[in-house]
From TrEMBL, chain A:
The keyword Coiled coil applies. It comes from Dissophora globulifera. Belongs to the ATG16 family. It comes from the Eukaryota. WD repeats lie at residues 270-311, 312-353, 354-395, 411-437, 439-480, 497-526. This is Autophagy-related protein 16 domain-containing protein.
UniProtKB/TrEMBL annotation, chain B:
Residues 1-26 are annotated as: Disordered. It is found in: Preautophagosomal structure membrane. This is Autophagy protein 5. Involved in cytoplasm to vacuole transport (Cvt) and autophagic vesicle formation. Belongs to the ATG5 family. It comes from Dissophora globulifera. GO terms for molecular function: Atg8-family ligase activity.
Amino acid sequence: MTMTHQSTQHWESDILNLFATRDKHEKAFTNMVESYNGLVQKLSFFVEQNKLLETTAASSKEQHDKMARQFTVLREQGSPLNQKRSAELEAQIVSLKDERAELYKTQGTNAQRLLDLNDILRAKDTTLAHNKEEIRRLTESNNILAHKHQEMVDLVNEKNITIQVIQDELTTLQLEMGKLDERQRDLERENAQLLQRWLKKMNEEAERMNAANVFLENEQQEVSSLAPHPQSPPSTRSLRSMVPESPTQANWRGGSTIFSIIPQISLNRITSHDSEVNAVAMSNGGSMFATGSNDKKIKIWDIKTGALKSTLTGCLQAVMCVSFNATDELLLGASNDNAARLWHLGTGRPRHTLTGHIGKVFSARFNPDSSKVVSGSHDRTIKVWDLQKGYCIRTMFTFASVNDVCLLDFDGSTIASGHLDNNVRFWDARSGNCVKEVTGIHLGQITSVCPSSDGTQILTNSRDNTLRILDVRTYETLSVLHADGYKNGTNWSKACFSPDGQYVVAGSANGALYYWSTRDGTVEKTIKEQSSPIVGVSWSGSSVVSAEKDKTVVIWGTTARRPTVYEK
Amino acid sequence: MPPLPDKGKTPAATASTSNTTPAPHNPIAKVIWDGSIPIQFSWDKAEATAVGSNAVESFFYEAPRCSYFSLLTSHVRKHFVDMALHFIGDDAEIWYDYEGTPLKWHYPIGLLYDIHGLQASAGRGMNGSLLPWKITVHFQNFPADKLIKSQAIDSCQDYFMSMIKEADYLRNGSTKKVMNLSKSDQTQLWDGLWSNNYDKFWGINHKLTTNDNVVARHLPVRIYMPENCPVIQDLVPSVDENNQHRTLRQVLNQSLPDIFPLVETGTPVATAMIHGIIPSLDTSVIWASQNMSYPDNFLHLVVIIK
């Protein structure tokens, strides 16, 4: 056993040695394999890691690609929401396009309709313009018609009023006519009686006249021996004055064939007006005179007594001229209120107011039969008024302010006028033409024109302090009248012939009266009773009335020496 | 043989109570257990090319001699799968060959190395180191005619256990010892082998190998001849007619009288190799069986013809 044990030990050690040898050989690679395995592990770890990383990278890349795709998609199409919205919008676009197409169609039809409507509109416009034009025309005519209608209505009213007035007046006149008719019948009866008596008397007178002729002839011979210039045959004048006749051309002015004697005795002296006196005129009969004044009144005075007969009112401004008609029934007054007025002296009522001048009326005269009135004004016109019709029948344009007018013949067809431009003009009243213009005779404005009683001469008074006598047929100056100390005082100062044409009287600025003889142009007489400028003188019969500016009127008379014919 | 402490009375209890039952001190067994071989696994080139990974690196592994290839398969496969990336293999399809010869997966690795490496190279008169052992790995075309199919770990365990039982039967005429082992002890036995845990394995195994001074009837010995000769397994009595312990020479002589004469007359023709060493032929078989058996409790003798 021991042996066995020892051998066992021996084997054991031997075998262990063998094993050591084997292991030395077989385990030579242990370290290497271990490190290899470590490396492999690491490698596998790295591979794993790498794989992981690759996976991560791949997934990242994939994610990136996805993102990029998504981004592209998004960039192209926007987000899904936007895509949805864009899809919606596209759908909307499609629908809108459809709608737009529809609208285009509608627009086309509308355009067509618009065109049609435009045509219609144009037509309507035309019609409208036409209508407007017509309306305007109609309105215009309507206005005109309305205006005319108004005018007509006014006219009708006026006429109605006029008719009323006229009817009133007619009634009055009819009443008056009735009275007058009655009076006329009375007068005719009386006239017939008077005529009867007168004829009887005339026969007696004729016989007495014949008896007296011898005596008269004897006396004339005596006178002829004294004065070489025989007057116009007194027989003719006497006869003419004897013959009862209606006023004719020869004596319409109430002219007298009786020799005039210079009235040099102051018979009466009147303080006439409240204000300055502008005009004075004696009646043709010589029984009264009229004065016109700045106090707008005209006063009628009695020559003999110097009493105030009546006062005529109605003028609105100063009275510049007064004038009686041939029968001394009417009085004409010209006034600065651009009117001339007519009064009936019997009633003292105004008969006419002649308005139409546009300047001061400086002069107004009746024609012989008192059917017309001629007036001259500072509006450079002369107007002729028809008293029957009551309105102006002619206007003559004189180119200068008229200071005075006068009538040269019986029917009043020739008119002379004195003007502010120093000239005298002659007019044909029928045609209205200027017949003659006499220039260069005066150096100052003409203040009055006065015809001689026979109508062949005309006296002009001027501010150049001279007076001239013109022949109305040749328009030549017959004589020039002037005097030392004579001075024309106002622009409306009136001078006049004596009734027989032998003398001329004019008033000076110092209040003196100058008488000139028409035969030789010398101063016959100078008398001075007044102190302020004389504005007018009037000579009728044997009386002269002179009016000075300062309200005073002086009545001049002659002494009692008168022709026996009139002494009677 | 020194009497071993009697622990076999309650083997199940000790085994079942503790996995860490200390193994009896046996330097020989320890050395055998620790023996290992460096192996270079290479993927079969044709297969790799077919798969498309032509340049797959080899896998180096130091395998315990007592282990089986089946237990390495998972490592090998993992390696190649890692390396070849796209490869998807099946554990059941893996097989190994050395220089064209398929390796039997139910042989311990050390035995296979002794047979195919050392024995074959000795037979061809080759010298020099075979290490690391170059093994070719196949994932396809399992040679069912040469190898037992289903080389999975479970099959390997069954085969191993049947070897244990066979050895037990040879020794004791019954399999009572093995069958008396509890299920957990049997599992621990295999687990110890698998996890290369010496204490775990031998804590159980020594119960089977201890004879309690009763001489074993026969010894589990297998003799491997070169050139694919069938394995020789004779009934090997542990003692001769003189009740003497038999030596290795006697045992070999019994089976191969021509090659192993009882008395050496000249240069020995052949030697027997165990665990890569060539022990003296005078070594007691009983001792050898007790100390130098593989974990399946067989004494595998590889005959090397000189």
